[in-house]
Design goal:
The chain is 30% helix and 16% strand. By secondary structure, it is α/β, with parallel strands linked by helices. A 10-stranded mixed β-sheet has the order 9-8-7-5-4-3-1-10-11-14. Strands 2-6 form a two-stranded antiparallel sheet. A two-stranded antiparallel sheet has the order 12-13. The longest helix is centred in the last third of the chain and has 20 residues. The chain is globular. The N terminus is likely disordered.
């Protein structure tokens, strides 16, 4: 998921072009009328070495399909990547498990794109951290879901102390090289049982070069046992009380010098545009499928999830696949256009009904 701050003001990846690129003075009609995207989320892999309790990868492990995005599929995206404000290399897996991760970054950077990624941090040794700096990756977000042992219990296979070590190492490398990039974020998954951990975060992250914490809540509930951890499934009174406390903790964090952003919808929202921005962004899955967002992109079948209306079967919403058609042709398909028109009118299409995100 793309961070709140990146949604708010996505910078263009066309601010510059490498000198070896030849800029055509007269664009073709196809390029002239091609869409521009606020961001593209490219899922480079669905493999993950961790087992976070709340993650669909863990809950659906018996039916999960693990694969890496092919280099050919990514190369096919390059003409479209130049029309996106941000290319974020992350989905339902750990990006650094992809054997060619840095090749993907280099390909995107070579056409002038701003690149970001989100990681659990466990595979980031000194060499990889240096390459992130040398390739001028714009944003690296480290995932957490608690402080100290609380994080380690919830995000099995990761360690809070190890994440702090990686943050410190990256901060030192940037200082030594005099580098401004990457910006370092923390992608913090807030469970309702761990609300008070947020108060401990500013001190834990002090001096580690983190520019902001982006707080998300459990927006996809993969099993009824997890429903109690989702703010969006609380009773209205409990929700409003928790939301007020979250705002208080965020303001406390800002006073301590750590910017904290979060998006928290009302528990019974009217129809409106989804924060996943389906009219101006999309997700490219590891198998080449094009989906409106990462929540409609799970590589499973025969599973259920918990919506606002209760438990229901999960259905992936693939609009097409790069193995069959180029991305822009898929984007212009009548069914995909109808999907976007529904959101433009503030009316969730059927695939999105019951979602906890908007």
């Amino acid at each position: 998921m793309i961070t709140r701050a990146e949604r708010r003001d996505p910078p263009s990846c066309r601010l510059y072009a490498p000198p070896h690129l030849h800029i055509m003075p007269w664009p073709s009609l196809a390029n002239l009328f091609a869409p521009r995207f606020d961001w593209l989320q490219v899922e480079v892999t669905t493999h993950c070495q961790a087992a976070c309790q709340y993650c669909p990868h863990t809950v659906y492990r018996e039916s999960w399909t693990s694969r890496h995005l092919s280099l050919d599929a990514f190369r096919g995206l390059l003409p479209v990547l130049t029309r996106a404000g941000l290319v974020h290399l992350q989905g339902w897996g750990e990006p650094f498990l992809h054997p060619d991760f840095f090749t993907l970054v280099s390909l995107a950077r070579d056409v002038g794109c701003r690149v970001g990624t989100t990681t659990n941090g466990m595979l980031l040794d000194t060499g990889r951290l240096k390459r992130l700096v040398d390739l001028e990756v714009a944003v690296v977000a480290f995932s957490l879901a608690g402080v100290g042992e609380r994080n380690d219990e919830v995000r099995r296979g990761t360690r809070f102390a190890a994440v702090l070590e990686k943050l410190a190492a990256l901060n030192e490398i940037k200082a030594r090289k005099g580098a401004r990039l990457p910006q370092v974020h923390v992608a913090y998954l807030l469970l309702s049982s761990g609300l008070e951990d947020l108060a401990l975060l500013p001190r834990a992250l002090a001096g580690l070069g983190v520019s902001q914490v982006v707080v998300s809540t459990l927006d996809f509930v993969a099993s009824p046992a997890l429903a109690k951890e989702s703010f969006n499934l609380l009773a209205p009174g409990e929700y409003l009380e928790a939301a007020a406390r979250l705002e208080e903790l965020a303001e406390q964090s800002r006073r301590q010098g750590l910017e904290m952003y979060f998006y928290q919808p009302h528990p019974t929202p009217p129809g409106r545009l989804c924060p996943e921005n389906p009219t101006r962004a999309l997700c490219v899955a590891a198998d080449g499928a094009i989906t409106p967002c990462v929540f409609l992109n799970l590589p499973v079948a025969g599973e259920t999830w918990v919506s606002r209306e209760g438990e229901r079967p999960y259905q992936r919403a693939a609009m097409g696949n790069l193995t069959d058609h180029p991305l822009l042709k898929i984007w212009r398909r009548p069914d995909y256009r109808a999907f976007r028109r529904a959101w433009s009118r503030g009316t969730p299409p059927p695939a999105c009904c019951g979602c906890l995100k908007p």
